[in-house]
Known about the structure:
Layout: H1 15-47, H2 51-89, H3 92-127, H4 132-144, H5 147-163, H6 168-187, H7 195-223, H8 236-253, H9 255-269, H10 294-330, H11 333-360, H12 362-370, H13 377-391, H14 394-409, H15 415-438, H16 440-461, H17 463-466, H18 471-501, H19 507-530, H20 534-537
Amino acid sequence: MSSAEPGQPSAGASLRTVAGNVRLVSLCTMLSRILGLIRDAAMAATFGAGPLLDAFTVAFRLPNLARVLLGEGALATAFLPAFTRELDQAGAQAARRLATATAVALILFLTSAVLVLEVGLVAWSWWLPLSTEAELLRSLIGLMLPYVVMVCLAAHLSAVLQGLGRFGWPALLPVIFNLGWLAGLVCFVPWWTDPTSRVQAMAVCVLAAGLIQVWCPIWVLSRAGYSFDPHWRSAWPQVGGILRTMTPVIVGLSITQFNTVIDSFVAWGFARPELGPDVMPLPGSPRYPLAPGAASALYFGQRLYQFPLGVFGVALGTVLYPLLAMHAQRGEHDKLRADLSLGLRLVAAIGIPASAGLMLISRPIAGLCFQYGRFDADDAHQTGLMIFAYGSAVWAYCGLLILNRGFYAVGDRITPLKIGLAGVALNLIGNLTLIWWLHEQGLAFSTAGVAMLQCLLNGWVIQFRVGQLQWVAIGRCVLKTLAATVVLAAVCLATEQLLERYPLPLGRLWSVFLPVSLGSGAYLGAAWLIGLHEPWLLLRRGKFSEAEPAGPPTERSDSAY
Length: 561
């Protein structure tokens, strides 16, 4: 098949095009995260922190978990290599058949699973007496379960577009979803006056936004000549291979998501109801350890720590993974270790100051993003505590993304799975223990602590597969990063004290913008003075690989991105 055939990306695509696609995806990701924060702020202002928003955030976690696991995680990891192989070796028609067969399998499996769960929810309400909070949660889960099919199908279609070298629309789909969510919240939800009806109307808006997410890639693919192929059954055996590849990756990529879902259900189940007794129906009649709104505070705290994780960590993992896989396939383990070590250095240089920054401005950023309408100062303080706890491990979440991709590059999907499952069990134990002393913050600290342990353990174990990493260079980078982060912290704290003494108009905006901008400038200045070069590697153009040590930011290196 000629590389000039429509719909197939050229094998000789320039590095400049690749870099442009990375910047496009990062820009769209940042826009989506900003719109997501606006969306969450609007939800907080509309519903406040309490049982309504708690139930909605817990119910939305289930389809969102399916999106992360099936749509954007394991399915894309397993499907894209098979799709591009078909495109290169068998042509566009065979690739269309594989894409259609995979979509059919996805729809059949997810629709069946949703129907089973819907029946289970109905049986739950019939056989067990439910409290008002539990009944609301059941109804919201039932309303939003069909979104699982929509979002996973949209993610699969996005993977097809990526396989064709079209990155714009897949990157824009989360932006479109957030815009649809905001439109429903502003234009549709106000039609109802009853609070319960309003939050249920919001669930219906989620489904409508999901339909738009599916329609957009279908329209783009049809214009590219990739419509439904009626002969998809001939590709059915290959779908089985994709599904077998997916299974261990699903759990391996989803450990952090499992932990956050567990956090939410524990927060919902152990939170004191607004109406009813203050003691739990347990032996000894202990008091509820968590306050109403705990699940909402956890959700908003997770949204904030996921901002740097999504913009930097996921983008870095996306760029590094093909390089790591290429080195592994060619047996170039020295280059694999060099690029993996580079990834960990970049994680340290960006993740450590990001963790410190989130912890230092946790309360101001919670107030700026969410303290509106029914979401009052106490709710913002509660959310700030979650941001502080989750933010302490941004570097670990980013490191896990890089290290897991290192395992997958060498074909090891079991080791991160085992370590991750142990982390889930440890996090559950930590949740049920720390909530009695640290309350809501104990849930976040448990997840953060487990992520740190997993990151350190993965970094040690991966050496048995690829050889010893460049720990001297990594350690030097970490020490310099910590020194520069101390400067960042001092500037942030000094700025916060000055703002308290001399308040400015639009105080909440300045309480975040000034510490972030001045602290970031101080960090980069200190990094330049002490010779911390890694932050500037992210600003260079070229191939994202470093088989040799990085030079100063003023030196030119063709191997540095």
